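To the wet lab folks,

You asked to see what we're planning to order before we commit. Fair enough. Below is the target structure as tokens, and below that is the sequence we designed to fit it. If anything looks off to you, flag it before the synthesis order goes out.
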């Protein structure tokens, strides 16, 4: 993941999105399309077609709902919340249309359903926390931990020296865990 000058700057985009500027919408879709697809892919359980449909539905809902966006959260957090709601809607619709032959003989245990819900909520919080970070922090963390790149590669993406990239990664991890604790509402200590 490279630090791109094309990535949308929210403070510039929001007023243009609100008035329906097509260039601003194109920037939003191009800038957030890949990370939103990754998130939708996870929400869709690894189904590429469903992930793409979910991403498109999310962008369409954003177009229709931009006037309600108040800027209290980063744009990506807002988009990911829309995607999460769309995925939940899709799941509810599928559950309504299950044939009797598809019904399991034994229901899932309440403990497994609760664990699944907790895991999904925590993953959503990770994504939202990540996208609330400064751009260079987010790119450093995604490059290093999601794309499994070396610190040297992170340095190249950021246009910085190896030592500077190490420093950015250290500060980014610390900022991530501080925000994540606030988002999750607990004070459990994470090692950084």
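Sequence we intend to order:
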């Amino acid at each position: 993941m490279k630090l791109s000058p094309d990535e949308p700057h929210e403070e510039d985009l929001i007023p243009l999105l609100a008035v329906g500027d097509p260039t601003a919408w194109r920037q939003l879709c191009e800038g957030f399309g890949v990370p939103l697809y990754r998130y939708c892919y996870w929400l869709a359980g690894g189904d590429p077609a469903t992930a793409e449909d979910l991403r498109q539905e999310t962008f369409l809902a954003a177009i229709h709902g931009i006037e309600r966006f108040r800027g209290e959260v980063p744009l990506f957090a807002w988009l990911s919340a829309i995607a999460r709601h769309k995925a939940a809607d899709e799941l509810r619709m599928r559950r309504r249309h299950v044939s009797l032959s598809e019904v399991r003989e034994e229901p899932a245990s309440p403990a497994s359903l609760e664990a699944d819900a907790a895991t999904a909520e925590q993953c959503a919080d990770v994504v939202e926390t990540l996208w609330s970070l400064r751009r260079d922090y987010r790119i450093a963390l995604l490059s290093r931990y999601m794309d499994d790149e070396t610190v040297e590669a992170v340095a190249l993406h950021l246009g910085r020296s190896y030592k500077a990239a190490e420093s950015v990664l250290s500060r980014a991890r610390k900022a991530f865990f501080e925000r994540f604790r606030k988002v999750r509402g607990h004070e459990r200590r994470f090692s950084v």
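Structural context that might help your review: The helical segments are 10-18, 22-43, 48-65, 75-96, 110-130, 135-146, 151-158, 162-184. The radius of gyration is 19 Å.

Thanks,
Computational group
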